[in-house]
Amino acid sequence: ADICFTSTMIPNMIADISTHNRVISYVGCLTQMSFFSLFGCMDDALLTVMAYDRFLAICHPLNYVSIMNPRLCVSLLLLCVFISLLDSQLHNLVALQFTCFRDVEIANFFCHPTQLLSLSCSDTLIKNLVTYLVGAILGFFPMLGILFSYCKIVSTVLKIPSSVGRYKAFSTCSSHLSVVCLFYGSGVGVYLASAVSYSPRKGMVASLMYTVV
Q: In the UniProt record, does the keyword Transport occur (predicted)?
């Protein structure tokens, strides 16, 4: 999912830099936005599932194997794919309703969904509704689940008497926690901020963080 997510905009960015051509077709822009939403949402959902997995492994180690069985893993994976497809099609459906655009320039190196929607000269109600609805579903609720998981994890780890045991337990979460902070901190911030007051420079830096870094 990470490789596919990055591959939706990096090859095009490299081609633009080498050819000094910053033009993308309308169909190409919608296609890029569709894949960006699909794999970005999948990344988002998988990070939430991974937090749940860490929560079970550390807080309920004796029941981990029985709870996190192959059937549940497949079900969670299919749920992630379903939510991702729904998000991708929702963005495309809204974008296809626009009949005119007040500008043809996107202040970023790829077709970011909220920036594309902001170019429309149609009613802003639907655009803002979709932006904040998707932001809540893919940003607020997953973050709430991750924070809850890590509150329980920290509480459990602190009860371990041995410092080596505490380090060993929490070290299994360090890589996941780093990615969560980087991905959510920059991704959700630029997604929601672009609907209110968008700074092109800050937006591109944040976009580089969660798409490339």
A: no
